[in-house]
Model the fold of this input.
Amino acid sequence: MKSTVEHLSPTRVRINVEVPFDELKPNFDRAYKKLASQVRIPGFRPGKAPARVIESRIGRGPILDEVVNEAIPAKYMEAITEGEVRTLGQPAIEVTKLEDGDHIAFSAEVDIRPDITVPAFGELAVTVDDLEITDAEVDEQLDELRARFGTLAGVERPAESGDFVSIDLSATVNGTEVEEANTSGLSYEVGSGEMIEGIDEAITGLSAEEERVFTTKLVAGEFAGEDAQVTVKVNTVKVRELPEPDDEFAQLASEFDTIDELRADLRERLTRVKKMQQGVQARDKVLEALLEVTEVPLPEKVVESEVEVRKHDAVHTFDHDEARFEEFLTSQGRTLDEFNGEVQEEAEKAVKTQLVLDSIADAENVNVSDNELTERIIYQAQRFGISPDEYVQRAQQSGQLGAIFADVRRGKALASVVRLAVVTDESGNNVDLEELFGPREAEAVADAPVEVEEAK
Done:
């Protein structure tokens, strides 16, 4: 087999392959065997007819088709391996010559990972928020804890934000009752914003046994996107009474003996949370800085595929009814052109991010251990509320196990960049991210530029 690689652009190649018939004997043997089992020939048992008899019966064409269809994918993979071509996506293959008894020639156009040069990681500098815990924030955490031990008491006054009410709901659209919207005895916290738009304003000011009609746009069900007239009736109004924040409460709600010890523990917990938030902010800002200073030619077909996936996912929510989807966009004050522009921008950024991090992972020889892959699978399974075994099974069926592996590897690659970047808070202090991302490498490494070959 002979093959050549022709670079059409920094992100696309044409691979030209020529295969002599001598190399295709195993393919012909399998083709004759397969066709012999499918063709009934008088005087021969199924699968036992000689090759020359099969050929005289069905002609040479079907045999060549079978050989070509089987051989080309294998020879394509052999060609990209020999040429060390790191491909992206599926190739567009064209048979350019078929000389029976002599050779087959075909070409394959495919996107490739471009050459990428990333900056020295130590030259990346970002600023994150100060790590500051206020007494008000500690008080808020304490109030949330007190709320868990609070009791509800009825009051005879109009409902206010923060009150708990029992309500009945009903709705109509153009006089037609919306059955799925009817409910009674529903408990709701006024001002929480956890129900349909406009309900908090409607309930506020109502006393027990009073009702009000308001208009809102339904977001689900048969009448999604249409205006509905909703009637809300308040049955009861209750207020939450909180226990006093004293030593007795500290002993009730925690392992501490005094309220001061409890407050100190809440402050420590808040500090850990804010350190984590600082780390996430640093990671995101370092990635943005990395992408901003790194030139990446984008593979056109890969971007197009990413755009199509994102559009498909958006319309899928509306049962692929594009008219309904456009109505939804209009209700959000957006146009279809604006949506398409946003999707294009997001897709390009996603592809660029993957290419850069994959390149860094290659250059840094980033590996993913079984434990790291298992941790990600368990985390994802918990997010979807299923068992890890079921998540793995679904991932295998959808061909996503490789994507999970790649995501973990990219995350580790990004962590290696964050470790070496300069991260300071708004007050100018260096931020120690060692707890989240591990220790920094030697300074010499931070100053060295990273040259990346073609990425896969």
